[in-house]
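=== RUN LOG ===
request id: a7f3
mode: sequence -> structure
chains: 1
length: 437
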Amino acid sequence: MAGDYPIMQIGELASSISETHKLGKEKLVFLNTSDILHGKLLHRTYSTVRDWPGQAKKSIRKDDILFSEIRPANGRWAYVDEEADDIVVSTKLMVIRANQDRLFPKFLYQFLTSSEITKWLQHLAESRSGTFPQITFDQIATLEIPLPPLAEQRAIAGVLGALDDKIELNRRMNATLESMARALFQSWFVDFDPVRAKLDGRQPVGMDDETADLFPDSFQDSELGHIPKDWTIQSVGEVVDCVGGGTPSTAEPKFWEGGTHHWTTPKDFSSLQAPILLETDRKLTDAGIAKISSGLLPAGTLLLSSRAPVGYLAIAAMQVAINQGFIALKCNERASNFFMLSWCQINMAEIESRATGTTFAEISKQNFRPIRVTLPPRELMAAFTAKVAPLYAQINANLQQSRTLATLRDMLLPKLLSGELNVSHQPNSTAHETTKR
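=== RESULT ===
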C-alpha cells in the first residue's frame, strides 16, 4: 500500500534507449556487462572503434540506468552519474531513461536495484527458455512503482544513496586492501625483491631485520628458472588437498527443505566484490550434505570455479559445501589460503590454459593438481600469512558492514514508498530527516 501516492507502471515513466551511437570519434569508452557492478562503471579505457566487438553500440547520457539483460540479480547494473559523450555500451546492456518531469532518475534506480525487485526480475528471467536467464524492458515496464512528488523522490533517493555511498567506500577500501596483499605476494614470491636486494648488499625495502633474515641472499637453478636458494618446487596436489563437489537431487525435498548448511555454485561468485564468500543462495540439510563426497568444507577453504566460468576465486568465511563447478583447495601451514589465493590470481593464465571442453571450458582436478608452485620455507610462509591476514580481516569486516547497510536500505525502501516513513529535506541543512508518519 503506497499511502496517498499514485501507482504507476514504469513503462509510463521511463523508456528503453536503443539508439546506435554515431561513431564520430576515433576513440571511445566501450562498456560491456563485465564493466559495471553494483552501481558503478568499473572500467573507463579508451579504445579505437575498430578494436570493438562487432555488435552495434548504444549511446548513453548522464542519469541513464544501465542494467544487464542477462542474470538480472547478479549486480550488473550502474547509474550514469557523469557526462557520457565518450561512452557507448553493449547491446547486452539495457539503457533505461526516466522522464525527469515525473520521475527522479536516482529514485527509479533505487527501486529497480532493490533486493525485492531484482529477485523478482531474476524469477522472470529464469522462467524464460534459453541458455541464460534473461529479461527484457517489456517486463520491467510492467512493474508498478509508487510515485511520490518529485521533491520527496529526491529526498528518498538521497537517504538510500547515502547508504550506497558508504557501501561504495567500503568496496574501494577493499580493492585497495586486496591490491596491497597481491603486491606483497608479487614482490616476495614472484619478483623476489628481498632476495635481489640482499644479493646486491642492500636492505630489503620496508622490512624489519627479523623478516629480512627469512630471505636468502642468492638464487638457485630449478625447472622453473632461477628461484631463491633453499626454496622448493612442488605440484599443487602435493601441497594442498584439492577436492570437488556435487549437487544432490533437486527433486528430493529432504535434501533442501529447511536446509541450514551453505551450498555454493559459481553463480554465487558472479557478483562478489571481494574474494571472500559470506553467503550462498541455497542451503542443504544433513541428508543433502551426506550426498556430497567432500561434505562440509571448513571455513577458510579456497574455492576456485572450474567451469562456467573458470577462474572465480574466494575464501569461504564459513563452512560450505560445493557443487561440481569448483575445485576446493584445503590449505595448510605449508601453503596458506592467502598464499594460494594470490598464487591462483597471478597464475590464472596457466590455470585457464589447462582447461578443456567443447561446450564450455573446464579444468579438472586431474589437470589442476600437477601445476607447479614455488614454495618458500615454512617460516617465511607464516610471515607472509601474518602480514596479509589483517588485510583480509578488514576486507571481511567491510563486507559484513556493507551487507548490513544493504539490508537496511532494502528495509527502508518499502517503508518510504508506503509513506510509513516520511523523508523531509530541511532547507538550511544538508541532512535528510526520516520520521514516522
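=== NOTES ===
The chain has three domains: 7-147, 152-229+378-425, 232-375.
Residues 152-229+378-425 form a domain with the Helix Hairpins fold (CATH 1.10.287.1120).
=== END ===
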